[in-house]
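Morning!

As promised:
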Amino acid sequence: MGDFAPLSLHVPEPAVRPGGAPDFSNVKIPKAGSVPRPIVDVAPEEIRDLAYSIIRVLNRDGEAVGPWAGVLTDEEILTGLRDMMRLRAFDARMLMAQRQGKTSFYMQHLGEEAVSCAFRKALDKGDMNFPTYRQAGLLIADGYPMVEMMNQIFSNEADPLRGRQLPIMYSSKEHGFFTISGNLATQYVQAVGWAMASAIKSDGKIAAAWIGDGSTAESDFHSALVFASTYKAPVILNIVNNQWAISTFQGIARGGSGTFAARGLGFGIPALRVDGNDYLAVYAVAKWAAERARRNLGPTVIEYVTYRVGAHSTSDDPSAYRPKTESESWPLGDPVLRLKKHLIIRGVWSEERHAQAEAEILDEVIQAQKEAEGHGTLHAGGRPSVRDIFEGVYAEMPAHIRRQRQKAGY
Amino acid sequence: MARMTMIEAVRSAMDVSMARNDDVVVFGEDVGYFGGVFRCTQGLQAKYGKTRCFDTPINESGILGAAIGMAAYGLKPCVEIQFADYMYPAYDQITQEAARIRYRSNGDFTCPIVVRMPTGGGIFGGQTHSQSPEALFTHVCGLKVIVPSNPYDAKGLLISAIEDPDPVIFLEPKRLYNGPFDGHHEKPVTPWSKHEQGEVPEGYYTIPIGKADIRRQGSAVTVVAYGTMVHVALAATEETGIDAEVIDLRSLAPIDLATIVQSVQKTGRCVVVHEATLTSGFGGEVAALVQEHCFYHLEAPVVRVAGWDTPYPHAQEWDYFPGPARVGRALAEVMEG
Ligand SMILES: Cc1ncc(C[n+]2csc(CCOP(=O)(O)OP(=O)(O)O)c2C)c(N)n1
């Protein structure tokens, strides 16, 4: 047809596949401390650059530098390190428990611990998260008992959710953790609704929405941005960009938009990218967004640039779709090791204390696991009653469900 | 008492509920300033302010998602989907989220929302303004599904729905918004103002969810219907002279099984009528229940009258819509059986 060559479909591909050399040359990483910290009531159009940069606090030497540094005390940072270590130890034990057949399924956070652990500390009691399956750090950092998490994972007789939910799909209103849906992105817009309700009631509480990079392609993500920007809802719209959605690299969902944070720009929502492996940066940015929300300045989009070191879930084998050593080349390092180094040069931590803390935490996790296993695991020991199948579909049990329960013998 | 159309009764239910409870919020496309394309929410924004009754973006999954979040917070959202035909983008939020939040969180979170949507045909709405999707909701555990057939019921049921602790799908037959209807489209519609069920108390009252209404006592055959088809069934009964007992289900989920069973055990015959397509429609559920519970009382097979298994046509909608003639033929058929 005339001057034009035939059309061809563009299908994005990651820089390398298994067998190739890991390559993150496309991830442009600014120096720690180099990205400015705007005032909270900044006009969104003045900080468009922040949707394309990466806010970082911890530099290579472990120092906290720049305008986003200095917001946490020694004590708070030490607690942060312990939270991340707890989550990591918890993950390791539960992964093992799944391999031992004590539960059907598990999803780990390896490499992403800073995101949820630091974020939780920027919220107050009464605020609400609408998490995905990879934010158990929100519970750990809020002091939710590990035993309860394990009871849920084992679907045992003490499972707070009575064996109804897939492992790791926790729920705790008290700890600001909304019941997790297995359907991706649905909860992003629910978080906006919760925040709108808080504004309708002139409350001081804020909500946080969570989504992965892959799931930003779902229409509910876009619905949420429409609602959040229309009503200036007091909500923090978190996007965890861990590079991979199961086997699908981030470029598939992102298309040509440059960054996920940049999705917020068309909606006039301030959008920031942050080093997701930098506990101090995550906390500082989350705190900034929380303050905006509380001051009635509306939503903020935050993209956490991180890397999923582990498999997507226990049903996944990442070596089939990415180089085995890719995680080691991730240019933003390991969140636990980075914070540890910072605390050491800060003079409040040491290798010995770290090793000791590791041992204590492992002990704590093992104790919790013993207690949880005392209530049973998926295939052994106590289970929730079959009666629980029929309870709680409605506030009051309707006649037809009662008849079915009787038929089942309960 | 006042004479009200179904539109006014629905509006009055929201008004009464909003006045009684500050947590009740009403929103949807065009419902705020304008009062909705059918004017069901007219005046509510002026009376209760923009944060209690407001317009939303054209984004049904957003409307439902936001409502679910608000309900989790502690509000009582009563949302409008402009036509039932447009609830499909929100179907995921309704069926996978709203319906199951109580169950999956073991009561930690609940979802007391009401989703109002105009349904059904008979207004020359064509394929995308005429659908009756009730069976898509009755199949989903965790939802309650209501279809009123007159202003009095609509108001009492909607207030109950708003007070209900669970998610309720409230389907408003738009053919009945302005008056009852006997299936003869060429005849002028008598307005609700000339009908006893247009007499609606101005204040608060409720009608329990899950209770059917016997609209006509009879001994020869039981007709189970809801929404617009209640009026069609009554017209068919009158025209055929068959002494039918006409049951208006009002709630499809939960269903009032006792009333159906009692009636069919008395009459020994049953016809089920609905506007939605026949195959896998709600009539199949009623027929199965009757078979399970009344088998030894039945003197003829249960007969279903429904819309054809095709999309809803525009020009031929009066051939699609089950009218008194089709119901009459079904009545005659079961009487012979
Ligand atoms: C609506 C829906 N579609 C598909 C799936 C299956 N699924 C589960 S996780 C996942 C990948 C999600 O990737 P991402 O959003 O990047 O989050 P990550 O796992 O990387 O944290 C998919 C496709 C689902 N759960 N829900």
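The first helix of chain A runs from residue 74 to 99.

Hope this helps with the figure draft.
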